[in-house]
Amino acid sequence: MALDAARAVVLERGWSAVRMGSIATTIGISRQSLHAEFGTKDDLGNALVMRETAEFFDGVAVRLAEHPGDLAGGVASAVRYMVSVARDNPLLETILTRTPSHGGDMSLLSLLTVRGEPLIGTAIEVFGGWVDDQWPSANPGDVRVMVESVVRLCLSHILTPTKTPEAVADDLALVACRCLRVADPV
Q1: How far is Cα 163 from Cα 167, in angstroms, rounded to an integer?
Q2: Cα distances (Å, whole numbers) of residue 58 to 46, 47, 54, 55
Q3: Residue 135, φ and ψ in degrees, nearest 5
Q4: CA angle at residue 102 from 101 to 103, to 5 degrees?
Q5: Is residue 126 in a domain?
Q6: Which residues of 73-99 are buried (b: 16+ CB within 10 A; e: fewer)?
Q7: Does an H or E element contain 37, and which?
Q8: Sign of CA dihedral 12, 15, 16, 18
Q9: How far is Cα 115 from Cα 149, in angstroms, rounded to an integer?
Q10: Is the pLDDT assigned to residue 175 strictly greater than 80?
Q11: Which of 108, 135, 147, 160 is surrounded by the fewest CB atoms within 10 Å?
């Protein structure tokens, strides 16, 4: 309930408007109880972003699973999903665009960028697990470099969109295939 209340405030007025006392009142608990559950406001923000990204990565796993043995197809589908959903998700869109000059602050953005290790780690785990399952004989070093590169490039395209989701998906599928020396996508 606290995460839902915080999400509603972020969408309506931005992260800077979130107050632990207001969230506690909204959900009918004491501020102390909210602090006991989440710690600080930053911890609440981290929990909010992690919940949102958990749902996001469930969708990535589904897209990958739809392409057994098809590196280009799996990467393209997962990347297309990631870029599209990040652009269409109201919370992620708010985090990415509501900077100080647009009525917000940078606190939540840092959870996706400079403090983004949990996000990147989860993406690498989901994507890397699928690659390991599908290509168990692939060189582990090549897999590690490819997975981390595709994840970081995808995140870069989410944070600074300059291409369509389809173009990003095609480019990153090509990168993945070349890294693992798999036939280029057609």
Answers
A1: 6
A2: 18, 16, 6, 5
A3: -130, 65
A4: 100
A5: yes
A6: bbbbbbbbbbbbbbeebebbebbbebe
A7: helix 31-38
A8: positive
A9: 18
A10: yes
A11: 160
For the chain, how many structural domains are there in total?
1
CA–CA distance, 38 with 163 (Å, rounded to integer): 37
pLDDT of residue 165: 96
Higher local confidence (pLDDT), 111 or 148? 148
Q: What are phi and psi of 185, to 5 degrees?
A: -65, 150
* Residue 173 located in a structural domain: yes
pTM here is: 0.80
CATH classification at residue 162? 1.10.357
Distance separating alpha carbons of residues 111 and 108, to the nearest angstrom? 5
Would you say residue 168 lies in a domain? Answer: yes
Report which DSSP code applies to 16.
G
Q: Which amino acid is at 77?
A: S
Q: Is residue 19 part of a domain?
A: no
Query: In degrees, to the nearest 5, what angle opens at C-alpha 49 toward C-alphas 47 and 52?
Result: 105
Residue pLDDT, tens place only, 93-121: 777 665 555 555 566 666 666 666 777 88
Token couple for 84:
């599209």
**Tokens found for residue 137:** 């004989």
Residue range(s) defining the domain that contains residue 174: 49-179
